[in-house]
Amino acid sequence: MHPFSFTKVSDTREALDAGRRGGRYIAGGTTLVDLMRETVERPETLVDITGLPLREVSVTERGGLRVGALVRMAEAATHPKVRTLYPVISQALELSASAQLRNMATIGGNIMQRTRCTYFRDVTAACNKREPGSGCAARVGFNRAHAILGTSDQCVATHPSDVAVAFAALDATVHLLGPEGERHVPFLDFLLKPGSTPHREQALQRGELITAVEIPAHPRPLKSGYLKVRDRQSYEFALTSAAVALHVRGGVIREAKAAAGGVGTVPWKLSTVERHLIGERPSEALWAEAARHAADGAHPLEHNGFKVELLRRTVERQLRIVGGAK
């Protein structure tokens, strides 16, 4: 680990001042500290923001849900409003990590975490995300766990967050505070696909701070859930996952939200699947037909072609679990 300075702030003004000077924000530190130990990350200054008042979970005036950036994953997962309104979020959080990590890690830190690609974390390997222009060892190396959607010639690493998949499905918004004031960024625009700049992973401006994630109000009743497929049931990252939310009224699907994890360079919104569901009546045939589009546009690599069919089956299964059939 390289030497660094450490400062603790007590209000947002202090935090923004430190961030503008190049400080890196830290709360739970469950990802950043690991990367510092591996010398992947080498910040000169860490800014402890755990004293900021960003720990509230609240229902918005329009009936949505606002989760403060410093709410612990465990707190969010067990919060009555989260469990009642959006069980997909609770389930994604509980499947994310061990209990010890969930007790430390924050919502803001979770969506800011960097990829678990082994080549990114091996400082001897070529990685455009870590060192732009050095190449992508994963494209010609062992790439079983890598992305099949949203990839580029520069990067094929997956985004590791589970709850980010739920946020993507539910069309969440990220609230930011920076030197220029407040901004609200749609979640689907906040995490960036690699393109030609894989080292730029979020739509953050210098010194900006995540203050909350807001889920808009959705029609009630809204049934939702999260399914994660992995190599083992204990703490492990997803090979594929599916976040699904459905509003059914009068026997017809009036609103459908779906996204996938473990297969994309960012949480992957399944817009085509959603379109196939809206206006239809739940049935086994509908789930199968809609799920066939889950992997549209996929570009599998040498070792991860199995993810195409696995993704389709995962989405079909979760549609059946959430929506049932007649």
From TrEMBL:
Keywords: Oxidoreductase. The keyword Oxidoreductase applies. Residues 1-220 form the FAD-binding PCMH-type domain. Transmembrane segments: none annotated. InterPro entries: CO_DH_flav_C, CO_DH_flav_C_dom_sf, Diverse_Substr_Oxidored, FAD-bd_PCMH, FAD-bd_PCMH-like_sf, FAD-bd_PCMH_sub1, FAD-bd_PCMH_sub2, Mopterin_DH_FAD-bd. PROSITE patterns: FAD_PCMH. The keyword Ribosomal protein does not apply. This is Xanthine dehydrogenase family protein subunit M.
